[in-house]
Design brief:
binds pyridoxal-5'-phosphate, PLP-binding_barrel, pyridoxal phosphate, globular, Pyridoxal phosphate homeostasis protein, alpha/beta
């Protein structure tokens, strides 16, 4: 990897500039809602970006990162973490049950708890590793057939199952339908969290994180606005 000390001034200042801009947006949106920007965790989604692209953000002082594939994260984060203490790694999106043990070993927070079989697999992996990590329940907020996430009606039962299995659930997570106004979906997720006595809300991406923060997001997951575009998969 490129060590932070080897970064060019341009790379470092561009990363610092993008980070400051997103932080400003979060601060503005939080203020409108009577909250503090510092109370919102900005998760920099570094999927598809290599260690050299991530290093400038670490050098700019950022510590919370997110990935959506276990294997990809295994390939870059152990070294990056060794170089910088205090990194917090989030897994966002779908998780296959057969990757539960690897996910528990590598990540600090999981944002994709969405079905009973995954609760079982994660509880087993956490017990085996003697390591407990909080898991947001991902809700299929737009009831989209092709999308992951727990059905809205099934959230209370999944929450109860997770708690019975000893898994801490800090809140709910969603990805609203693409190309639709996201605010009603964010508001619905916030209401569901309240109804279930949960305070965490993982919602908002590059295009809509300010709206999400105004509607109560505690965690925003921002990739493109921090790293630039991703190559097509
Ligand atoms: C990729 C991804 C993001 C970040 O998306 P951007 O639009 O690049 O900010 C957020 N959440 C999840 C679940 C993702 O997969």
């Amino acid at each position: 990897m490129t060590a932070p000390s080897q970064l060019s001034d341009t790379e470092s200042s561009e990363a610092a500039g993008r980070l400051a801009k997103v932080r400003e947006g979060i601060g503005r949106a939080a203020a409108l809602a009577g909250r503090k920007g510092d109370d919102v965790t900005l998760i920099a989604i570094s999927k598809t970006h290599d260690a050299a692209a991530i290093a400038p953000l670490i050098a700019a002082g950022h510590r919370a990162f997110g990935e959506n594939r276990v294997q990809e994260a295994q390939g870059k984060w152990p070294q990056l973490r060794e170089a910088t203490p205090g990194i917090e790694l989030h897994l966002v999106g779908q998780l296959q049950s057969n990757k539960a043990a690897d996910a528990v070993a590598l990540f600090d927070v999981i944002h994709g708890l969405d079905r009973p079989s995954l609760v079982t697999a994660l509880a087993k992996a956490m017990n085996a590793a003697d390591r407990r990590i909080p898991c947001f329940i991902q809700v299929n907020i737009g009831a989209e057939e092709q999308k992951g996430g727990c059905a809205i009606a099934d959230v209370p039962a999944l929450l109860a199952q997770a708690r019975d299995a000893g898994i801490e659930v800090p809140g709910l997570m969603c990805v609203p339908p693409a190309d639709l106004e996201p605010a009603p979906y964010f508001a619905l997720l916030a209401k569901m969290a309240r109804d279930n006595g949960l305070t965490g809300l993982s919602m908002g991406m590059s295009g809509d994180y300010e709206t999400a923060v105004m509607l109560g997001a505690t965690h925003v997951r921002v990739g493109t606005a921090l790293f630039g575009g991703r190559p097509p998969l």
